[in-house]
Every structure is written in C-alpha cells, then in structure tokens.
Design a protein that fits this description.
Layout lengths: L1 E6 L5 H16 L3 E4 L1 H11 L20 E6 L1 H11 L6 E5 L9 E2 L3 H9 L4 E12 L9 E2 L2 E6 L6 E7 L2 E8 L1 E5 L7 H4 L11 E7 L9 E4 L4 E6 L4 E6 L2 E6 L4 E14 L5 H9 L8
Parallel strand pairs: 1-2, 1-3, 3-4, 4-5
Antiparallel strand pairs: 6-7, 6-17, 8-11, 8-15, 9-10, 9-14, 11-12, 12-13, 14-17, 15-16
Length: 293
C-alpha cells in the first residue's frame, strides 16, 4: 500500500511527536509513504528532516500512484488537498490536529485504529460534490474548483454590490448585498452557515445560494439542484470584486461574467466505520448538549 502525506505546518512539539508516531505506524504496517513536495520542503527546512524519500507533485498522481492521501491538520488543510488530488479521485483521510476539524475523519489519539482500518480496507468512501467556476477570464483562478464554496463579495468598505443571478439562463434574483455564496453540501457547514444558510447533508445533490448581509431582509438563502448552472453579473460603484474558491481569492473586474456548476469529478473522503454525518454534527456543533452548567 502507498500513501501520500500532506500538512501545512508542524507547529508544536505535540504535533511533531504525533507525526513521528504516524511514520512509525506506517513503517510497522509495511505502508510506503511519500511527502507532498511543499510539506517535504517544510520538514527539511524547519525540522531538519532529510532522506525522506522522493517527494511527489500533483502531476505524479495522474497514474494513481497513491492508494490514499493523509491530510494532517484542520479543515483548511483538508481543503488544500483538493488541489493535490484534483480529478484523480484518490481518497483522502483527514487527521485533525487543529481546533475544529469538521471534515477530519479521525483525531490524533485514534491513529492506531485508523491505520488498521486503512490497511484492512474497512472504510467507506464519501463522494463529495465539487463546484467549478467558468469565466471568460481564464487567468485569475489557476485551479477553478472548490470543495466548500464559491464566494463573490465586495473588496473593501465600499458600498454594497448587486449580483444579478440566473439559473440556466432564467432570472433568479438581484442580490443587493455584500456578496453571494454558492456552497456545496460540504461547504454548507462553513461560511454559508454563518451567513444564515441551512445545513445540507452530503449526497443531497444540491447547492446553497446564500447572500452575505443582504439589504432586503426578506431575501433568504435557497437550496437548488446541483444540475443547475448559476451565472452572475455584478453591478456597483467599485471597479473590482473579490472572488474566492475555498480559501483562494483573486480580484476580478466587476464586468467579468461568472458561471458556477458541478464539476465532472468528486472529492473522495475516507469515512471510517464509526463515523457518520449526524454524529459529526452532534460532536462538532454540540447538538443536544446541555451547556447551561
């Protein structure tokens, strides 16, 4: 079995100890491991770890060289892995060493059982929808895909913008607001939720369209089928707006036409045997917990 390893940083002594423990577990199980090239550079320069083997790039995965990718970090690190696996659909296992870890499959203290499930192939795959951005300007987003959401918003403290929005060419609404979010079911628990959007279960084949601070309070988030193509035209006093795909943002001319649709591939998230979405909601969002004491 061959796995890739990715993390942004190993900041604390605890995470370094965990990382070394993970490598020992992989060696004991006879699992070959490779480091994503940026993570490999971090290990060499910040932790003086050398002779780690041949680092890999995204282009190395076209031939499905890896059986899985292990993400070590928080939700932001998990979102990074979409750019690594791209459309290869190599499954990703998230190990949370951050604060929230909504997308993570497991925690540091359960890593032994997690590796056992990985070796025994006793996990399942959750196929998560990916959103794709199309635009006449092909230069401002080098990787036009997102696992969580697409966001268009005003750049600074300027006045609100108006986002004229269409579904398959048919007019939906003009959102007079600070911006607009198009979230996948995965991203419905992120920025969209904080702006008043609903939680949508993975696999529901839908998008959530959520305005950011709308001027008209009766304009509410809507849930639509992910078979729709959402097009947008922006108007306002500013010359440019900010467009984000997950955590990647670019400034875009306000006259740029944008189209959002479901990508032709999925992000494959490793789901362990004791894991389900409802359990995650209860644990991470404290549903059903009595917090009065």
């Amino acid at each position: 079995m061959k796995v890739g390893l990715y993390a942004r940083l190993l900041k604390t002594d605890e995470t370094v100890r965990f990382f070394n423990k993970l490598l020992d577990l992989l060696k004991d199980k006879g699992i070959e491991y490779y480091f994503y090239h940026k993570f490999d550079d971090h290990l060499k320069h910040q932790h003086s770890l050398h002779n780690l083997g041949h680092p890999f790039h995204s282009t190395d995965l076209i031939d499905n060289r890896l059986d899985a990718l292990i993400s070590i970090g928080g939700d932001g690190t998990m979102l990074d892995t979409l750019q690594i696996v791209r459309d290869t659909e190599i499954p990703v296992l998230g190990v949370n060493i951050g604060r929230f870890g909504f997308l993570a499959s497991t925690q540091m203290q359960y890593i032994e059982n997690t590796i056992d499930e990985l070796v025994n192939n006793s996990y399942s795959i959750a196929r998560r929808t990916v959103v794709q951005l199309d635009s006449e300007n092909k230069n401002f987003i080098t990787f036009p895909y997102a696992l969580n959401d697409f966001v268009i918003q005003k750049k600074d403290s300027s006045s609100m913008i108006t986002v004229h929005t269409y579904l398959n060419g048919e007019f939906l609404n003009s959102y007079w607001s600070d911006g607009l979010i198009v979230a996948t079911p995965t991203g419905s628990s992120g920025y969209s939720l904080s702006c008043g959007g609903p939680l949508v279960f993975p696999g529901s084949a839908s998008f959530v369209v959520t305005p950011i601070a709308p001027h008209n309070l009766n304009v509410r988030p809507v849930v639509i089928s992910d078979n729709n193509i959402i097009t947008m035209e922006v108007a306002g006093r500013t010359r440019s707006v900010l467009v984000s795909m997950d955590s990647r943002s670019e400034s875009v001319d306000i006259h740029t036409q944008l189209a959002i649709k479901k990508a032709p591939f999925t992000f494959n998230l490793i789901k362990l045997s004791n894991e389900n979405y409802m359990k995650t909601l209860r644990n991470k969002l404290n549903w059903g917990s009595d917090i009065r004491n």
